[in-house]
Amino acid sequence: MPNPPLRDREATRARLIAAVGNLLARKGFKALGVNAVAREAGVDKVLIYRYFGGLPQLIAAFGQEGDFWPSVSELTGGDPVAFGRLPLDERLRRLTRHFVAGIRRRPLTLEILAWETVERNELTAELEMIRENTHLRLTEMFFPAGAGGADLQAVLGLVGAGLSYLALRARDVQWYNGVDIQSEDGWRRIEAAVDQIVAGLLSSTPNRE
Amino acid sequence: MPNPPLRDREATRARLIAAVGNLLARKGFKALGVNAVAREAGVDKVLIYRYFGGLPQLIAAFGQEGDFWPSVSELTGGDPVAFGRLPLDERLRRLTRHFVAGIRRRPLTLEILAWETVERNELTAELEMIRENTHLRLTEMFFPAGAGGADLQAVLGLVGAGLSYLALRARDVQWYNGVDIQSEDGWRRIEAAVDQIVAGLLSSTPNRE
DNA sequence: AGAACATGTCACTTAATAGTGACATGTTTT
DNA sequence: AAAACATGTCACTATTAAGTGACATGTTCT
């Protein structure tokens, strides 16, 4: 027995938005079509056009839901002020740990990250912007230019890129350069590698606060 | 005036294989369908099934063409023996330079790298294997476990992943963590960042050959 | 020459997709 | 109650894709 129609615009909109998230998580972005989303939401597809204007706008609405990227607060461990008082090397180590945990626990984000490498759209542009902004604020707040005597922005960019990519690849692939990126052990090795990089960076130059 | 049919099986096979490469380079993997490849090759699509068995097998044949990843020789600068005699830090620096140059000058490889994040198929599996093998041989030949006192395998994996990802993203995006990855200047910053990482790694522990 | 085969063309089916116009049914306003 | 509107259903078009069976034409072997 089919449910009676809801006749509730806002609820239907919400179901469609939720359907995007569910489909993305379950089937990946390749399954994201007008038909599939409508089916997932249990709603006629014409309502996507009526209520959002089309799939791109629906995806944009989903993008507003947020929480696709670790926030500054999450990256600093909840207390930015206390974080700012830590020595530089400790700040960098914690940042890495929180970042790795933050992206690995967000399958949706990894999916969007993969999408990004392939296509530009409302969601991927949104994620790009959030990420670049977060990085910018972090850098300004906690890693002023010249700290540690190295080009921290470039190093953090490179390391962040590496961590993102490894998390991304770990969805399908077990080994990367001899590291088992699907095991917790492998990720401990990676985190330890970052620690070694940080330690080296700060020991080879005057360790300014 | 349409050309007369070739009636040359090998030539037709070759045209199909070439068409895969051209399409991939010009339109990306999303355009890679049976119809598109046949059109690009100027050949009837049924021949893809007859001569290869299907698109996957045609793509696999294309994968055998090779040169999708910097070889050991390319990464060491042409003379592995001389490379092996360099001090560790110099080896790492050169490796990075050659690797960055090697992937950035291969648009097709970047395309496949993007494809990899999204789908597993004959080509992406091939690239994965080549890459993992190359890394393995490099590690065995030039970076024995424990050299430098750090987990070099993990560090190289992380840095390699970061470089690959940045090269990949640079196809569509200009800024990554405040670095302009579409400019030569930006890439010099990234290479310099690797130098700093290498220098730090080896200075903080006994610099064993 | 004739049979067997290789090469290539063409027309078709099946399935999936994005998008739209016409309609039915319920709610609100007058 | 009647008109106007909102919500949702349904059926359809047009496009594209993968895959296949029947045929035409040229080559090779006997």
Order of adjacent strands in the largest pleated sheet of chain A: 1-2
- Rg on CA atoms of chain A, Å: 21 Å
Low-confidence stretches of chain A: none
Provide a count of the helices of chain A.
11
The average pLDDT score of chain A comes to: 92
Quaternary structure of the protein = homodimer
**Biggest protein-protein interface?**
A-B, 51 and 52 residues
Helical amount among residues of chain A, as a percent range?
55-70%
Task: Please write the string of helix (H) and strand (E) elements of chain A.
Answer: HHHHHHHHHHEEH
What structural category do the secondary elements of chain A indicate? mainly alpha
Largest sheet of chain A: 2 strands, antiparallel
Please specify the SSE layout and strand pairing.
The structure is a homodimer of 209-residue chains.
Chain A: H1 9-27, H2 34-41, H3 46-52, H4 55-64, H5 72-76, H6 80-85, H7 88-104, H8 107-116, H9 122-142, H10 152-169, E1 175-176, E2 179-180, H11 184-203
Antiparallel strand pairs in A: 1-2
The structure holds a DNA duplex (30 and 30 nucleotides).
